[in-house]
Amino acid sequence: MTDLQELEEALLSSRDEFIGQHNRNVERAQEQFGKRRVAAKKIDLPQQQPDKAPCKPSKEASGAEAYKTGHVIRLAVRKKKMSLLDEIFEYRSPKISELEARLDAERAARAAGYPVIGYVHSIEKM
C-alpha cells in the first residue's frame, strides 16, 4: 500500500469518526432539550463511490480560457462623492466593443455598491 492510499484511508476514517461523534452529540442534545430546541442536524455519511477513472474537465469549464474575446476594464470607483481614495474595480466583459464593455463594467460597479465612477483606469483586450 502506498503512502497516498494510507493517507486517504486515515482521512476517511477520521471523517467517519467525526461524523459519528457529531451525530451522537446531536442525539444527546435532542434527548436533553427536545428536537425543536436543537438547531444542529445529523450529518449523513457520504456514499462510497466505486473507483472510476478521473474524468476530463469539460471544454466549457476550462477556467481561464473560458473568455477568448472581450475586455478587462479597470474603473476608479468611490462609495461617496467626496471620498479621498479611489478604489480600482476590475471587470471582465465578453463584449467585443470597448464601449459596450465599459458600459457593462459601469453597471456592474454600481450593482456592487460603488455609485460614483471616477474615471476609466484602463481597458485591455483579452
UniProtKB/TrEMBL annotation:
Residues 41-63 are annotated as: Disordered. This is Uncharacterized protein. The lineage of its organism: Bacteria, Pseudomonadati, Pseudomonadota, Gammaproteobacteria, Oceanospirillales.
